[in-house]
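Weekly structure sync, notes
Attendees: PL (lead), two postdocs, one rotation student
Agenda item 3: pending single-chain targets
PL asked that the sequence for the first pending target be pasted directly into the notes so everyone works from the same version. It is reproduced below exactly as submitted, 193 residues in total.
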Amino acid sequence: MKRLFDIVCSFFGLVFLSWLFVFVALWVGLSSRGGVFYRQRRVGRCNRDFTIYKFRSMRVNSDRQGLLTIGGRDGRITKAGVFIRKYKLDELPQFFNVLRGDMSFVGPRPEVRKYVELYTEEQKKVLTVRPGITSLSSIKYRNENEILSRSDNPEQYYIDVIMQDKLAIELDYLEQRSLLTDIKVIFQTIFGK
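Predicted structure, written out during the meeting:
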């Protein structure tokens, strides 16, 4: 049932939001040099890598300077990127990931391999389901960049505190997940708490 929901919603979402995709793509393309889309390898279900798609919100090759973005002081983020990140418009191309079966609308957020290598065996249970565009942990940490900007060592703080809390939330989600729970998470993501 969840997979059918994902297919139907991603298809109709792509159709009905096509105007928004075009608008954001033009804005990203005209506001800074580089392609419209950003692609990155993430870890998905069954611990397999897949390519996640986003609208590009940072200058080209910015991820070579680090995988985490740190609040408003991160000069790698473009002017258009500040806006599309704030309203999560950079995540819209993940509808294609959902349609392809790489992702679901709701599920543990997919992480890069570097951080997945730090998971305990218990935490690796989050890799038994399709990762999601949104999750309870991404709602809680919607201002993650600002939290990291207050740390003297953002990456270590991410690993020791934020990542651990996110994984605990995701493991709890796995115990209670249902289509109704997913719909509630989607509404919380769109409309806030």
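Discussion points:
- The CA atoms of residues 21 and 155 lie 32 Å apart.
- The chain has nine helices and four strands.
Action: rotation student to compare against the earlier draft before next sync.
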